[in-house]
Amino acid sequence: MIDLIPGSRIDNRDELADRLSMPRAQVARMGIAELVLEAYQRWGEDCPKYLLGDFAFVIKDGTRLFLARDPMGVCPLYIGHGDAGFVYGGDVHEVLGHPGVCAEMSPRAILTYLITGGFHDPELTLYQQVTKLPAAHSLTVTGSGSGSQQRRYWHPAETARFSGQSSAEYSAQLRELLTDAVRVRLPAEGHIATHLSGGLDSSAIAALAASQLDDPARLEAWSWMRPPASAEEEGDPEWSLARAVADKWNIPLHFTPFGERDFLNILQRKPLLDNDSADLWYEFPVREQMRSRGIGIVLSGWGGDQFISNAGESAYLEGLLSRNALGTLADLAGLAKNSRRPARAVASLARHQLAAPLLDYVRWRLSRASFNGWGDDGLQLATPEFQQWARQFSETIDRLQPRLRVRGRQLQELASGTIYNRVEAWAASGARAGVSYRYPLLDQRIVEFALGLPPGQYCGAGKSRRLFRDSMQGYFPAQQREGVTKREPQRVQEAYDTMASALNRLLLKFPPAPNPWIDVAALQRAAAALPPPGAALTGEALTALLSVKRATILATLSVDLPHF
């Protein structure tokens, strides 16, 4: 017997058919549960190694349970640790619904969220008695749960490195991988949504999806930008980059209004209780628009920046520290040459691509005694008692060690749980809106390809994200081909203004009751001290806003907020 988590998908049916010595046509007709059971019967507990796709399942084999979760953690699998025996489910409330599992919140999770803004841990949830099966892991449970063995079946650090190929050859391989990663995620029927910001990741996915659909009218795109208010704004890159891609491929493009009332009503829903810690507020109204149009599948570009479309922040430093220092400096000069102000561009590139990653590493080396290397801005808003506990148990949050090499950064993204935090959060909130997310750029084949690439392939020849751009030749309009980089100063400024105003309004009119974690008076003072809406946005102001926002979310978890 098998319990399959909704949203599970197996993408390598032809390969499995050959390995299982079965006709491909027969395997193509098999249901996912039947196919997974066939793999289990052939390979036993090693079967997840042979499965490509997004999946989570539990197989009941006599008195033994075998659980497995896909390599990137797209499909969640929660486990309860109360008095109800062994409990599992694809939704945290499914597990909490068992009478033996307590909904008491985890101090470690509260601390992690307050400092990092998420549950950046492979197993952590908001609840003391609920954990997650980590991505790329399986778990065998015997009896009533008294005996268990957890194993990792995919080890990204063991991915082989490539060598000896030209950029053109790598580009052709990547194009083939990207095309297939989108293809296997397109449903056979029904309407599909895609994010479209105008950046390279979302633009590539939208273009590849539109080019492969028999009926392009099935595809619609959403931007997190509000509708442009003038002809001048329509020509601004924040709007025009996404519009250029949509026009090229005849994709209807929807913009997303987002105001103070929208933000306050999302807080009223308390998404953190659903284990949604992503804090990506624009996605809530996007989901509502999708649901109103009957769309249940969304293609997202999440994961591209971390892996295959990596901007190569460490690639230049890595090159400078290698035998190719002169070539690296020439590449940086080529990037600056394409700028309208080459001298300023040289200084900016040197600061961001060379000095910044090196200084981050030096600061980390000098701050080993500080609070875990994360900083403690958010902790200043905690109660004295919680601060004392937090500093005593600061080792409960993994240190975020800066990496000087591209592959090291990519592996850290997987180890630190930042990737899993986003996909798990969207799985939780998406399920409540009837929306399922699919991530072509987190396809295991593409992640392994990114890990295997020589670092110089990410940038060079005067272009950032060189390999990704080259692989998508013919799919992008002129703006993306010419190297225009997506920036969102207007959206970020407006988001700051909206949230700063809303948080002040909430904390002044409806101050939460005292709780074990947050010092409400300190939180109110911090909110009042935020730069007012309309003030020039600085990094310090944004950091302060994020701390106030996280503390407000924690302080209001047990408070009934009004509808706005």
UniProtKB/TrEMBL annotation:
Q: What class of enzyme is it?
A: ligase
Q: Name one GO biological process term.
A: asparagine biosynthetic process
Q: Does the keyword Kinase apply?
A: no
Give the metabolic or biological pathway: Amino-acid biosynthesis; L-asparagine biosynthesis; L-asparagine from L-aspartate (L-Gln route): step 1/1
Q: Residues in domain Glutamine amidotransferase type-2?
A: 9-89
ATP-binding is among the record's keywords: yes
Give the UniProt keywords, A-Z. ATP-binding, Nucleotide-binding
Superkingdom of this entry's organism? Answer: Bacteria
Question: Which GO MF term does the entry hold, naming one?
Answer: ATP binding
Give me the reactions it catalyses: L-aspartate + L-glutamine + ATP + H2O = L-asparagine + L-glutamate + AMP + diphosphate + H(+)
Q: Name one Pfam family in it.
A: Asn_synthase
EC number(s) from the headed UniProt entry: 6.3.5.4
Task: Indicate the segments forming the Asparagine synthetase domain, all copies.
Answer: 173-544
The text of the family note is: Belongs to the asparagine synthetase family.
Query: What name has this protein been given in UniProt?
Result: asparagine synthase (glutamine-hydrolyzing)
Q: Where does this protein come from, organism-wise?
A: Pseudohalioglobus lutimaris
- Taxonomic lineage of the native organism: Bacteria, Pseudomonadati, Pseudomonadota, Gammaproteobacteria, Cellvibrionales
